[in-house]
Amino acid sequence: MGMLKDEDKKYLTEQFEEKMVDPVPILLFSQKLECEYCQPTEQILTELAELSDKLTLDIRNLQIESADAKEFEIDKVPAIILLRDDKDQGIRFFGIPSGYEFSSLLAAILDVSAGTNDIPDDLRAKIAAIDKPVDIKVFVTPTCPYCPGAVRAAHKIAMLNPDHIRGQMIETTEFPHLANKYAVYGVPKTVINENVQFEGTMPDQAVVEHVLAALSSRD
Description:
Number of strands: 8
Number of domains: 1
Strand order of the largest sheet: 2-1-3-4-6-5-7-8
Helix content: 40-55%
Mean pLDDT: 96
Shape: globular
Strand content: 15-25%
Number of helices: 8
Structural class: alpha/beta
Largest sheet: 8 strands, mixed
CATH class: Alpha Beta
CATH topology: Glutaredoxin
C-alpha cells in the first residue's frame, strides 16, 4: 500500500504540471539498519518522484557513501537535499516529511524548480551580502500546523545564498538528542548559529534580522 492517497497524487500531479519549471533532483541519504524512518521516507519520495518527469530521486547510503555525506555535511538520516542544476540549494530536511511538513517539502520543490521565491528585494540584498557561514535549525513535529512557516522561512533564506547559508528542518521526535541539546520544549523552535534562538513562526524580515544579529553577536 502506498504512502500517498490517490487524491493527493492527483493534486500533486496538477501542482507539478502547473508550477514546475526546471528539474529538481532529490538526494536522499538513508540506511537500512537503525533508522526507523528511513524506509517510509524512501517510499514517500519514490512515490512523489513518480508524479513528474521533472523530479528524480537519488538514494545514497550514509555509511557506504560516507564521502558524499561528508561533502553535503550530512551526519544523520533520513536526510533530504534538493538540487538545481546539480548545485546544492542549502535546503535540508532531517526526518520524514510527513504531516504538516509535507507541505514544506512541496513548497521547497516548487521554489527550487522556479529558481526563486517570494522574499522581497530589500531582504534579498541583505541575504546576498552575507559572506560568513549561517546555520538555521528549525525544530518541528509533523502535527504542528505552525511549523511549516518557520521551515519555509529558513529554506527561502538559504536558497538565496546557498554558498553560505543552510536551512535545516529537524524532526524533533526522530532526533531527541538534538531536542535535548537545544532545549526544545515547544515547536517550531529556530536556532541560528548556536547563539540566537526563538520559538514560533515569524515573518521573513524578522528571521533575516535574527540571522544578521547572530552574525553580529559572533563578531
